[in-house]
Amino acid sequence: MSDVLPGAGPLGHPDVRLLRDVATAVVRLEDTARLDAFTLPYLPQAQRALDAVVLACLRTGARPPAGLPELLRWCRSRPIGSWPLEGLTDALTDTGDRLIDELSGRPTQLCHELAVKARGDSASQQYDRMVIHEAMRACREAASPESYTAFRRLLVNQPVLTEADWFDLGTDLYLDPVRELIALIFSPAPDAYLRLGEYTPCGRCLTLLTPLDDGGWWCERDQCRFLGTPIPGPAFKRVDSGLVRQLKRPLRQFVTGPGRAEADLERALRKRGLTVEMWPGYDAYDLRVVFPDGHVWAIDVKDWAHPGLLGRAAEAVRPDPYYDEACWVVPQFRVEARRDYLDVYTHERGNRAGGLRLLTDRQLCAAADARLHGDRGPTARITP
After folding, report:
1. Is 320 left (phi over 0), alpha (psi -120 to 50) or beta?
2. Do the Cβ atoms of 16 and 45 come closer than 8 Å?
3. Which residues contact 70 (CB under 8 A, 6 or more apart)?
4. How far is CA 21 from each of CA 50, 53, 100, 314, rounded to the nearest angstrom?
5. Which of 15, 93, 263, 291 shows a CA-CA span of 20 to 30 A to 152?
6. pLDDT tens digits for 6-18?
7. How many CA atoms lie within 13 A of 180 on its CB side?
8. Closest listed residue to residue 223, CA positions, set 179, 281, 264, 278
9. What is the 3-state secondary structure (H, E, C) of 40-87?
10. Predicted model pTM
């Protein structure tokens, strides 16, 4: 699916484009060092974003940030709605969001969406799509759709690898076509994730937890934080585990995160006696669901913080493999956290989507029940 978003409407406002520049600078800075440890000269992209924010403040008579450290403090301590950028209020209606998480000091999921998904002017900003497309190419050349499925399950189920895990991957013949790619997308886990010499994964989403100064934990996935206090999984000592590798952040966010939701939905639909194929046709869509009467649903699962950006990215689901109906699905927590989520998506959805409907995973399961057992039977639909 293309991730290039049109520039018209509120989300194309110059202030939103400026916020995207700031978000991109924040993500690039985190790749360089800690976000609270910068000195002159700044990275060119960060300097350009700072200069643009200062100019925007001068135009409105607001006090601008004195330098990059203060701009980063804005990102962490000031909700987006309090920034002196008038175009943000209409476009980003949930203006209590921040670009940097208050507790952990890490870029938020919204920050990554603005930086990575809301721009189409740089291939490097579409890293997750480049990786997925390269995996598709390699597996097609090997004529092995099973290899692609194994690759996707690896990214969903093992975003963190110990040395022993890494050795085990070397014996998985299905991963042979993508072995070089796997070596590129996993990198050594930073010391920032260590507490008393141990790495601790999240018990829910399996990504590494960030230790906080108060003794608590922070999970980078929005859904885990929405569900409450992080649940630490089994910790492993660095001295015993060898080199610990983790999947790079764009893939953890845009592949592992939704992939967990895809796996949950797969289990829920299989429990209902439905046949479910994951990532059919080299990921034409996420789930191909077949009912006992042969009726087929095509499901793409998304997990974006901002429904407007998701609406701008919406496009019709690819027609092959064949299906009778198609829709996009988001985790239920997104709608519980933001009640206008589905409405904002629909409002921002463009012509490329062809009326593509967005449901929560709970609504989809209810629709499956209605089709299987309800009074409407086969007339129960997931399309308009």
Report:
1. beta
2. no
3. none
4. 9, 10, 14, 22
5. 291
6. 445 556 677 888 8
7. 4
8. 264
9. CCCCHHHHHHHHHHHHHHHHHCCCCCCCHHHHHHHHHHCCHHHCCCCC
10. 0.80
